[in-house]
Amino acid sequence: MSKFRLHKIRQFIKIRIFYRIDRKILIYLIFVVISTVFWFLNKLNNEYNTIIEYPIRYTQLPKNKILVNELPQKLKLNVSAYGYDLIFYKISPAPFPIVLNLESFDANLESPKVSSFKLLTRYAREEITNQLPNNINVLDILPDTLVFQFDNLIDKKVPIKANLTLSFAPQCMQNGPVIFKPDSLLVSGPTSLIDTLQAIYTKPQSFSKLDKTLQRTIYLEEITNLRTEKKKVQATIPIAKFTEASFDVHIVPINVPDSLELITFPRSVRISGLVSLADYDIIKADDFRVQADYNNIVTLIGQKLPVQVIVAPSNVRNVTFFPPSVEFILEKKP
């Protein structure tokens, strides 16, 4: 017999032996898996105690009050159930929240004298169990006490204020305050919050390169424990094109004794500012008032007398004037 044939016979014998061994291992593993499945199914028929978490929603809170403390959003339930039911709970989607109706436990929550309420969760065990899947029995509930703290609701009307960042196209500016519709809201909340509330602000928002009046719906900032009539308002941002205007305005001396006359050099100042094109023709020098106060002379030794712009039209922006101070002489009246 040739060496080649002997080699082939040895290879064949090895393959047969390994095949039989692999087959035995495979059959063994199959029986192990089947046994494990039957063992697991048998265990699922047993009853177990475990802790599960369930979301909770609180209903029928007193209408004339507001909740001022935070309540747990989930309850920990110590339950007893068969393995099948627990497995089903674990693989199911997020469960519907348990609904806890406060009126079921205290009918006097509307009373103005009631500011807090404690609920021992063991008294809610039956109501909670009825909302769980069948065959799940609640043994205990954590936390063992739910504390509700209330404050009486009061109303107040407050203005709406802008929290906006604006930038403008060249030669354009905001031409007046932002106009809201409505311009104020009736809000309800606890006394501690309402007493210090001065305004409702819009949510931060930015607008850039504005070149004409803009109208937008803008959402309001939400304040915890505060109820408002609306969540958003209409805002109008007036925009106009501006140009520079200049006016020569006479200086008016004030607080001068009757026996003296205060004469300034020069007798007027040059006022410059930005004016909208629509207002350019209606603004006059008489709309400004510039003063030099005689009382400031007491502190001056060889210095010029400062002047002040006391009155300027609201529709003139970035007001500047020159000179900021003037020379002067005092003369006795004849």
Describe it for me?
- The chain is an alpha+beta fold and 334 residues long.
- It has four domains: 1-44; 47-143; 153-237, YbbR-like domain (RNA Polymerase Alpha Subunit, Chain A, domain 2); 243-332, RNA Polymerase Alpha Subunit, Chain A, domain 2, CATH 2.170.120.30.
- 18% of the residues lie in helices and 46% in strands.
- It contains four helices and 24 strands.
- It has helices spanning 3-44, 83-91, 125-129, 191-194, and strands at residues 47-59, 65-67, 74-82, 98-101, 116-120, 137-142, 145-161, 164-168, 172-174, 179-181, 184-190, 200-201, 205-210, 214-219, 227-228, 232-237, 239-254, 260-265, 268-276, 289-293, 305-306, 308-311, 316-322, 325-332.
- Strands 2, 5, 7, 11, 12 and 15 form a six-stranded mixed β-sheet that branches. Strands 9, 17, 19, 20, 22 and 23 form a six-stranded mixed β-sheet that branches.
- It is elongated and about 125 Å long.
- It starts with a helix and ends with a strand.
Short description:
With 334 residues, this protein is of the alpha+beta class. It is built from four helices and 24 strands.
The proportion of residues in beta strands is over 45%
**What structural category do the secondary elements indicate?**
alpha+beta
Shape: elongated
Main sheet properties: 6 strands, mixed
Unreliable runs: none
Roughly how many Å is the radius of gyration? 42 Å
Q: Tell me how many strands there are.
A: 24
- Provide the helix percentage: 10-25%
Q: Estimate the mean pLDDT confidence.
A: 83
SSE order? HEEEHEEHEEEEEEHEEEEEEEEEEEEE
Count up the helices. 4
Number of domains: 4
The first-to-last residue Cα distance is 157 Å
